[in-house]
Predict the structure.
Amino acid sequence: MLHRISHQWARAEMGIAALLAVAITGLVLLNVVTRAMSASIFWVDEAAIYAMTWMTFLAASAAVHFGHSVGVTILTDALPDPAARAAQRAVDVVVLVFAMLMLWLGWRWFLPLDLMRAGFDTMAFQGETFNFIYAEPTLTLGIRKFWLWLIMPIFALGLMLHAVANLLRPLPQGAKA
């Protein structure tokens, strides 16, 4: 069941990443056209950058599920099958630890409990914590950056889901890492 949930999450990540890729293409083309007409739209660059960031994190998380992440296999190819499978499990554990660490750092960064204790009053939250994450606006889009930075905990949750699903999935016999 967990593998099925991981699969559906990865499909959603890839679908959103594909939509963002289309948006990036459109934004870049819009930028080219408006600059050629000497009528630049300044928010387009920033929107394309944030779309690229979200696309990258979502696709990277999905790549862990689908096993399409970049890997250096010179060592595992030389190992006997049981050792290669153990190495693959070790990689899955490292990915899980990385995801958990990222989630913990995101928790420390966003401080959701402190924000709730402040009654979702960002000014009170800033005064108590000296954390200005919820106040900083983007340069040209005019939205709060924390909405865009939410990709970090979303990525960490997806990565953790995929890593746990990979750890619980049996590796086929004779499969190199």
Remarks:
- The chain has a mean pLDDT of 92.
- The chain has eight helices and no strands.
- The radius of gyration is 20 Å.
- Helices lie at 2-36, 43-66, 74-78, 81-110, 112-117, 122-129, 145-149, 151-168.
